[in-house]
Amino acid sequence: MIKPITENNKFFIKAVLIIASVSILFFFGGVNRQINKTVESFITSVRGETKPDTNIVIVGINENDIDKIGPWPIKRSYYALLIKTLSEHNAKKIGFEVFLSSRFAAQSIYDNLLTKQITNSGKVILSSVAGSISKKNKNFATDSLSYPSPKLLNENLTTGHINFIDDGDIIIPLKLHAFNQVENSFALLLSGDSKENMEEIHLNFISSEKKFKQYSLLDFFSAVENKSLNLSGKTIIIGVTDLQFLTGIGTPFDENISGVALHAFALDNILNNRYINLNFIFLSAVIFIISLAAFILLQAYRLEKPFILYPVYLVSFFVLGFLIYGFLNIRLAYSIMLLPLLFLFLWDVILWFYERQLLLKGLTNEKEILENLFFKKEDELKQFEKELKDASGGEALPILEKIKALKREIKKLRGREEDKQPAEENIPTEAKNFFGIIYRSKIMNDVAELIKKAAPEEATILILGESGTGKELAARAIHQLSKRSGKNFMAVNCGALSESLLESELFGHVKGAFTGAVTDKPGRFESADKGTIFLDEIAETNENFQVKILRILQNGEYEKVGSSKTGKVDVRVVAATNKDIEKLVREKQFREDLFYRLNVIKIELPPLRARKEDINLLAASFIEKEASGLKLSKTAADVLNNYEWKGNVRELEAVVKRAVIFAKSAGRTLIQTTDLPDEIARQSALNFEDVVLELLRSKKFSHSSINETTDEIGNVSRTVISENFRGAVLKAYVENNFDELKTVKEISSVDDEETNDRVNSKLQMYVRNIERDINKSATKNFDELQTRFKSKYKNLPQKFHPYLDEIIKNLVSGYNHKS
Predict the structure, then answer these.
(1) What is the DSSP annotation of 84-122?
(2) Which one of 378, 398, 416 terminates a domain?
């Protein structure tokens, strides 16, 4: 049997999930890095590009340069000329990202010239290349370091290494230890900043490399000739941008970035402190873990809607990340929040399906319990009947009483089996269809006879009846039986239109009468000339409009909206209302003279509850219309007959349509009580709480009655019995308008004072507990109380929750009134 997971267990499991997910991140660093990189890429793409430092200029040697000047490597005399030109244009720093290797013998003839220009400039930073890099005690070290050929000719020249580490992040070691010396990074030397307390930076690619000011080598010399260069105070980085020399590194804005651009971004990061700040990762991890703990507590507080916090947390998380990383370049431990949150979400989804299955299993067990109880009671009945045969006169009476009680219980339990059997088709021959009005009751037969008598006359008719009783069908029947049957029948719902629209609808309007009146339009009265007009909900109209109706009733005259021309019609008026129109007349809310004009012949349609014998006939007619071949079960038919039908025939039709859909979707040819709405089906004898109440009544609600009932029903917990009893008491209390005396009598169903005292004690305990907790609570808002009182709803069957809601609302209302 599926067992429910307690709230403590849920809390423990979620705590374990957080610990497990954090452990995964700790032991599998690749997962951690990938999550963080994905989040940062997302934030960067949302934020968009940031313009890099305008004092950084790239001179890139591209494919076209190599084709025209080449082959690669190009002659170093070009570099010498480039340095000379840049120095003459007052460049602040000149960085050679191109590694000038000494292995090219053909270039050695130009090395002296190049070295001389570098020495004379005093602004050049050459690139060096380190071998394998390792990190020890927060310091980076290398096992080899290669210098460019000019450095070999003049050891006083400045070099900086161009190495980087691709570890998810692009890391630039700012200081690289090699053979008892320190080689600073290329970008650090170009910046002129020592960054004494830093050993590395994590690059922050703030834009595409295209955002840097760039020249190709040939374009640069062309600009020199045109005297269009302004390089004063600029830092120039010279490198290769030919596609075959790219780094293979992608950024949020470039699929493959060049090496020279990578170091340009490094320089920009150092100059503007835009590198990724790692100092808050641990602090953010701690804060995120605390927030996850708060998340679990908030979920427990918002138990009815556990999923609502996920979008709230995610949106808050990404807004926080966007502000802190997107604008402050501070890295947070995103994975510490996201992976546990994903684990919690998956757990809540699994738990949701699990609890749905638990609920379904509980409903199945309830049916099994009732079925077993039915057979058990039948066995008891046979045993008592056998004892009765052998009993003497004095012993027979109590046995007879027990037999009667058992037969009552069996009758109720038998409803479960009868819900699987079709209702008997006992439709007598006198069942009639009177112009769509289906009936066999005497009261509706009298209505039909009255319509037959009134229809041929020209008198105005007033139809009274509750909503849904068929007033328009009656009006159509009057028209069909009248001398005007060959002419138009027009129906208008007066309550559905405003005064201005209603006047236009009934009397028509002329072109230009109001905005949108682009043509003349005939009104319903004009269209119904020589025929019949049905004015439904006539009592909803105001006095001004009633005067116009009175005029047309008196002499057939009317005026279209926007016209002073009087029209004349010959129309029979049938009016209807679901209001007490005579009361409205007395209260001066409806014109008395109009009432008498309308009320020449009055036809009152009975509510459906007054014509019970028509219910199954109507239901069968609606079923046949919706799905031929379906039938009502015996129990469903009884339930329909016992319902009050405040919405009358219209409500019955809607209920039948719903039931047909549910039965067809279940693949059945029989409509059962499970296909009916809860508020109707709860009258069925299948209600589990009814069985519980009957058993408790038989035990006079004694202190041991709950345990005895649990044992008697079998395969059910004491909590199920006690919570069904609590639910039944709360339901009766609400349905009796919070009258304690009536509630006690309904639950006990006896006049025994001791039994009633026991029931009253339970009622007082249930209500006072709620009242006490409301008084203790700082808030008197129902929605907040409902959330805080989740323990009161916890084991209570769902069908009783609305009654508990009503009791809380009533107590809150009383409290606010006293205040």
Answers:
(1) HHHHHTT-SEEEE-S---TT-GGGHHHHHHHHHHHHHH-
(2) 416
